[in-house]
């Protein structure tokens, strides 16, 4: 039997703690090579549409941000985990 669940509003507290941090100090795990390092070491390429951050070791794409008329899309497919020091 599946455990009872609540809706995503239950994430508001814990995620607001996690997302109120300097992301460049967070450590990400690269999907390409497994390296875990602070995002500040990523290689960032920017153009008018947004930017791409690549692993400083293997050049894999860690994340992309694409700006839209009303906000931005953040794609974190290249990061398998993010460590945030609290
Ligand atoms: Zn890598």
Give the structure's gist in a few sentences.
It is built from one helix and seven strands; from the N terminus they run H-E-E-E-E-E-E-E. With 86 residues, it is mainly β.
Explain what the structure shows.
- By secondary structure, the chain is mostly beta strands.
- It has one domain (8-83).
- The protein is 9% helix and 41% strand.
- It has 1 helix and 7 strands.
- It has one helix spanning 12-19, and strands at 27-30, 36-38, 43-47, 50-54, 61-68, 71-75, 79-83.
- The protein has a 4-stranded antiparallel beta sheet, with no helix packed on it. A 3-stranded antiparallel beta sheet has the order 2-1-7, with no helix packed on it.
- A hairpin with a 5-residue loop joins strand 1 (27-30) and strand 2.
- The radius of gyration is 15 Å and the shape is globular.
- The N and C termini lie far apart (34 Å).
- The relative contact order is 0.21.
- The model has no long low-confidence stretch (mean pLDDT 90).
- It binds zinc ion.
- Zinc ion is lined by residues 30, 32-33, 35, 55, 57-58, 60.
- The site of zinc ion has 8 residues, from loops.
Protein topology:
Elements: H1 12-19, E1 27-30, E2 36-38, E3 43-47, E4 50-54, E5 61-68, E6 71-75, E7 79-83
Bound molecules: zinc ion.
Structural class, judged by helices and strands? mainly beta
Number of domains: 1
Percent helix range: under 10%
Termini Cα gap: 34 Å
- How many strand elements? 7
Rounded mean pLDDT score = 90
Q: What would you call the shape?
A: globular
| H/E topology pattern | HEEEEEEE
**Strand residue percentage:** 35-45%
Number of helices: 1
**How large is the radius of gyration?**
15 Å
- Widest sheet: strand order? 3-4-5-6
Provide the low-confidence segments as ranges.
Answer: none
């Amino acid at each position: 039997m599946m455990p009872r669940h609540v809706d995503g509003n239950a994430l508001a507290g814990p995620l607001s703690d996690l997302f109120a941090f300097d992301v460049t100090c967070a450590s990400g795990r690269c999907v390409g090579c497994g390296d875990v390092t602070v995002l500040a070491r990523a290689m960032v390429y920017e153009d008018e549409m947004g930017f791409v951050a690549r692993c400083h070791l293997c050049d894999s794409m860690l994340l992309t941000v694409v700006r839209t008329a009303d906000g931005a899309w953040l794609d974190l497919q290249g990061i398998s985990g993010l460590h945030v020091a609290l």
